[in-house]
Amino acid sequence: MKELYLDVLQKFGYDAIDHGRYAKFRAYWRDGNDVNSVTLYYDSGTTKDHVTGETYSFKKLLELISGAEIQDLDKFFVENKLQPIEKYNRNLTPPKIRMPKIYDKELLNNLIKDHSYFINRGISEKTLQLFGGGISKVGASKDRYVFPIFNESDDLIGFVCRDLTGKKSNKYKIFGEKGEFEYPLFLEECRQQIIDKSEIILVEGIPDALSLWECGIKNVFVLFGLDSISSINACIRFSPKKIIIATNNDSSKSTNYGLEAANKIKTRFSKFLNSNRIHINLPDKYNDLNEVLINCGHLGIIEWYNKCK
Q1: How much is the pTM?
Q2: pLDDT tens-place string over residues 128-138
Q3: Yes or no: domain 2-91 corresponds to CATH 2.60.40
Q4: Cis peptide before 184 (omega within 30 of 0)
């Protein structure tokens, strides 16, 4: 009945976010403005208001969003020019569920634990061991430093592979469903610091995340592209008070693509989250946060971070 629920919400001006098995939306009937505050579950038709703690039937939800007392559901649908409920039942088809590929963790045994490339870029071996990467000498990832991507269930769902030769056309190769990557939320320290600080820092690449982590700043999320649905979902799920966008700073180029990207991300996130929570803070003087670490050390990262406050 997913189509039914979404059609009804849209009819009454509720811009719901579809999460596959449920939808989230604002509780306008009580002047609520947090898109994460109410969940409608497609399988049962029940709605949970996470602020008041109340649970509603579908009929009660209709009364709340329409402001009317409903005696006859069929009549209500006709009066509001909605398709009859039975039509949704006839048109109901099983949803296509796309599951991310799960890789065998035995593949990680083939990685050579040589971290010298990133150690030379200011990242300690202790941090690199935590992220579980290494150099591949075989296959499509040959001569690349490979970062395994885990989900929060500790399944291996992909790889991000950085060229070490400087000769390959693509600096990075990604294997797996990039849209499913929530990196590095598989690390408890990351999740806990996001909760404790009520803050998420969005960065372009893994080296940026490593650079922040090296300086004790672990509430970080890697975007892997402008169209990152996973980052929006993560921000909605954690509902932080502050979101910091720290894309690259291409100020030395004729077009600052990093700043353009940051503005696009802010615009996109503002459709789902209060824009007052979202702040842009690009690295000063350098292209990315890893360059800040290399050139200015931990103090440079801390100074950058303090500007976010």
Answers
A1: 0.69
A2: 999 999 999 99
A3: no
A4: yes
